[in-house]
Amino acid sequence: MPVCTVVVSFVPREPVPLLLLGFRDELAARPWKPPARHWPGSPLVGGFDEQAGGTWLAVHPGIARVSCILNGRGGQAPQASRRSRGELPLLAADKGREALASLHEDRERLAAYDPFHLVHADVTEVTLLSWDGHAATLTELAPGTHMITNAGLTPDDPKVRHFGARFAADRPSGAPGVPVAQAWHPWLKLAEGDGLPVGDPRAIRARKTLPDGRVWGTTSISLVALGQAAGLRYDFQALPDETAPRPVGELPA
Predict the structure, then answer these.
(1) Where do the DSSP E strands lie in 106-230?
(2) Torsion-angle region of residue 74: left (phi > 0), alpha (psi -120 to 50) or beta?
């Protein structure tokens, strides 16, 4: 259910300080709904995982912040007490960085989740909470462009070695009120795969048939821009059905 690769660019001096690109890799048959306000009484917007009720990425239009979850590596939670990681982006987008700080200190609560990397960002900071099943780390990311995978924040991942410098080299504007292709150029070309086959270990998009016949791969791409005065921009592409990202729509507070 979580995303598997995230690119986040944080440049405080820019009109749009925060840009986030997320790739969700999942079993193709797992049911989900595209981004909307799926949670009654909540202002949050995100895709809806119909199996567990949570999300892989949530935005808070009223506060201009975003949170998303990646699978981590390590020991799984006990089956009897296991909770869905899809509830964590909702918690973080709703409550802010304080929710990550509180969770970081709560070893008993963390133990109910399989390993994860939880990204929280607004126009003032980007925070990463990582849990491997035994220990948790809370990291405030420095300004710049970062690429996070299931291995966490590491330059040794093949995806990062291939794509990290490419994403950092030319930052999109993320500007509101312009077409998607204009707002996200040149990241969109990289998001298309940069010419790598899906089976390449460096590939940012994945698709394969498992031994039992099920299909697993990239099912959607999310692009989120947070601005000081510009507010929130949220674009989305469902794969393999949609050929290009599209605006999620008007997101009033």
Answers:
(1) 116-121, 126-131, 136-140, 144-149, 207-209, 215-227
(2) left
Angle at alpha carbon of residue 7, lines to 48 and 85, rounded to 5°: 35
* Each residue's pLDDT tens digit, 65-116: 999 999 999 989 999 999 999 999 999 999 999 999 999 999 999 999 999 9
In whole angstroms, what is the distance from residue 211 CA to residue 123 CA?
44
Contact 191, 21 (CB under 8 A): yes
Find the length of the chain.
Answer: 253
Average pLDDT over residues 189-193: 95
> What is the Cα–Cα distance from 110 to 131, expressed in whole angstroms?
7
Q: How far apart, in whole angstroms, are the C-alpha atoms of residue 188 and residue 60?
A: 24
CATH class of segment(s) 3-247: alpha beta
Q: Where are the domains of the chain?
A: 3-247
For residue 182, pLDDT beyond 90: yes
238 by Cβ neighbours in 10 Å (0-12 / 13-18 / 19+) ranks as: middle
